[in-house]
Amino acid sequence: MTGMSAADICILMPVHRNTSAAHLRGALDSLRHQTLRAGEILVVRDGPLTPAHDVVLDEERALAPELVVLEPGSVGLVGALNAGLAHTTAAWVARMDADDVADPRRIELQALAAREGTAGVIGSAMLEFEEDPGTATARRDMPLDHDEIVRKLRSVNPVNHPTVLMCRQDVVSAGGYLPLAGMEDYYLWARLAAAGTRFHNLPQPLVHYRVDEASYRRRADREAIRAEWHLQRHLRRLGLVGPARSATNLVLRVSFRLLPPRLMRPAYDVVRSVLAGSNRAG
């Protein structure tokens, strides 16, 4: 993608009042300290925020003129993401959660990969943390090349959504984000792969991703379990899996969601490993 510059990149960051204002400040500070700053930082307010959030946004806008705040109302995460995609004119959109921290070279390295390659979705590894971004509790590596990513897409989500840089036109042409109870990103990757978009993951962990027990509890609610069934139906419809693999996926992916939260994290890793192995077996 020759000729690409920082001005071609928008960082898309929805924020909800449940996000700590201090965490929001940390996320925005990490974007201001990039070795290559994006042309636009688009913060989408998903409903009313607190006065503390407003202070952070006002102060950050004074330091970063590229920061834009969009107010579509209480539209939920999917609505906020789609509102951002519709608002920006940037050719590339980088996702960022409002409580995560970006590595200083995130935008530089992903822009370089976009310029030199053919991928329309560029992700990376990421480091999980609970309180201190400098103290990682886990590392989430992903397959690197397109063929391996699409192969693993048959059973597991092969892209860390909070790390991605995406070609906006590809995403819009695929219908943007569609509701699927926390698996909207996985469903988007499946539609993009079926449409011929190429994928690439960088090996460097370019995002520090905040996790807590509540994030695992959300994976166990009934809506998430129903979404697993719908996801497998979509994968079959798109021609990515057949009935047998779909059934195997469903059994394994639902099983770990039925465990107590304290067991879900290690079980999640085991399930991903088993499903990846089943992919290698065909």
From TrEMBL:
Residues 10-172 form the Glycosyltransferase 2-like domain. It comes from the Bacteria. Keywords: Glycosyltransferase, Transferase. This is Glycosyltransferase. It comes from Nocardioides euryhalodurans. The keyword Chaperone does not apply. Belongs to the glycosyltransferase 2 family. One of its GO terms (molecular function) is glycosyltransferase activity.
